[in-house]
Structure to design on (275 residues):
């Protein structure tokens, strides 16, 4: 039984690419997730939804059954993922982890309407929540794992950047309110309205229906717009530099592993692969 459990663990959560079966399971789950996203997209077209309703529903049921089995197996094998914890604590840790919650919320939109009667608007939101399944791809993507590691490592730097951005937004919105309120009381009615202008300007997406008309307001707006270029670039630079460093470290590690698998013949100088 223990060997069977280890086999299941390696199939769904082990080192992928080690055996063909691992790769097949990986491709099947990844393909099913992509097809689910396509099905959700097609389901928004009324003509397709009416004509192929039974097929779309059958595919939804099939997908939910597969994801439910996968979720149950991951809970069952959680003690192999966290061997330092007891079985109960390991399963709780998995269930409350990011991917554990993604697995759970990917299933809930199907089961909630079956258990309780929900309003049509809530039902539409639940259907939209099925898009959470796309996050399941992150478990099967090395690039996503790399990006997640980068965000985790740079989270404090990013938090400082976000806090500084929030302070700039609040200050610029407050100043603009006092500058433009008298000239445009209908546009800059309060700081909240001015905050919307500040967000649109600082992110360089444009003014929309709110823009300054006074001379000082235009000067401040120009300054905020230029400052917005740096605000957008700063977190991008932090993430980019960390990704480059991670990729360089991974490449160096792979090179070291390749070098360790070969040795030089002391007689002829040729490289010999170690078994």
């Amino acid at each position: 039984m223990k060997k069977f459990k280890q086999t299941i663990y390696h199939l769904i959560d082990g080192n992928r690419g080690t055996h063909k079966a691992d790769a097949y399971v990986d491709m099947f789950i990844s393909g099913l997730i992509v097809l689910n996203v396509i099905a959700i997209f097609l389901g928004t077209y009324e003509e397709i939804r009416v004509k192929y309703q039974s097929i779309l529903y059958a595919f939804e049921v099939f997908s939910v059954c597969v994801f439910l089995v996968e979720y149950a197996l991951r809970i069952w094998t959680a003690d192999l993922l966290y061997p330092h914890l007891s079985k109960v604590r390991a399963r709780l840790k998995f269930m409350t982890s990011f991917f554990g919650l993604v697995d759970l919320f990917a299933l809930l939109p199907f089961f909630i309407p079956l258990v309780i009667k929900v309003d049509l608007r809530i039902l539409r939101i639940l259907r939209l929540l099925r898009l959470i399944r796309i996050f399941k791809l992150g478990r099967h993507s090395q690039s996503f794992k790399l990006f997640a590691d980068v965000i985790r490592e740079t989270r404090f730097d990013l938090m400082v950047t976000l806090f500084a951005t929030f302070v700039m937004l609040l200050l610029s919105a407050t100043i603009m309110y006092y500058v433009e309120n008298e000239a445009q009381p209908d546009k800059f009615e309060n700081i909240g309205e001015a905050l919307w202008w500040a967000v649109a300007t600082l992110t360089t997406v444009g003014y929309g229906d709110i823009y300054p008309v006074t001379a000082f307001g235009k000067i401040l707006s120009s300054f905020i717009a230029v400052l917005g270029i740096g605000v957008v670039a700063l977190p991008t630079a932090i993430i980019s530099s960390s990704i480059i460093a991670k990729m360089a470290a991974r490449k160096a590690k792979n090179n070291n592993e390749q070098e360790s698998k070969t040795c030089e013949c002391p007689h002829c100088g040729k490289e010999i692969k170690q078994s």
In short: The chain has two domains: 1-139, 145-273. The mean pLDDT is 81. The two ends are 32 Å apart (CA to CA).
